[in-house]
Design brief:
Blueprint lengths: L1 E6 L5 H15 L3 E6 L6 H6 L1 H9 L8 H6 L2 E7 L7 H7 L3 H5 L7 E8 L6 H8 L1 H6 L2 E2 L8 H4 L10 E3 L7 H22 L1
Parallel strand pairs: 1-2, 1-3, 3-4, 4-5, 4-6
Bound molecules: flavin mononucleotide.
Length: 198
Amino acid sequence: MNISVIYYSMTGAIYRLAQEVAAGAEEAGATVRLRRVPELIPLEVIEANPQIKAAAEAQQGVEVALLDDLVWADGIALGSPTRYGNMTAQLKNFLDQTGPLWAQRQLVGKAVGFFTGAATMHGGHETTILTMSTFAYHHGMVIVPASYVPPEVSSTTTGGTPYGPSELGNKPDLSAEERAVARAFGRRLAEVAGKLRA
Ligand SMILES: Cc1cc2nc3c(=O)[nH]c(=O)nc-3n(C[C@H](O)[C@H](O)[C@H](O)COP(=O)(O)O)c2cc1C
């Protein structure tokens, strides 16, 4: 099965989470495309902020997402940091270009799941995943949550929600629980995508 992990990350946390989701899908035997959506922040703003600049440089080697990455995939993971409980404009801008795919029903029946990150514990992990998920309803996709299948969802004191993987606090490294939930989610997305494809 083919899995596309498509994300936006301004300062690196969601990039780290996306890599774990991709690794989980590969563990399940999927062919994976890891892709970042186009940046909308002006270059001079990026250049003036050392943290954003370093994250942009770290992601230089990641290919930019195209609509074909959605069409190619049997399963899709979409990731964005929270912005006031919602996805970023960068990911929304990419998803807002899928009108032709919607008109041609090209994403109907594909597996899809969502992941996010927030600076604070109650700052929007679940709301961001839920508000991102309206995309799936309109495209007729099959939503794959993390659920409580990974035991770390029950024990985590950092990120990792039943709705989907998440990261808390923009740490230099993911916590063990965040990593475990992201990997398990990636595996599960690939397994469900494989069954739907069959
Ligand atoms: C404009 C803006 C709005 C944000 N809104 C929230 C918020 O509502 N709740 C929260 O906990 N964090 C909020 N954050 C913090 C980021 O979502 C969080 O640090 C994220 O994990 C960073 O991901 P990244 O390193 O991949 O960019 C906001 C950040 C920005 C720049």
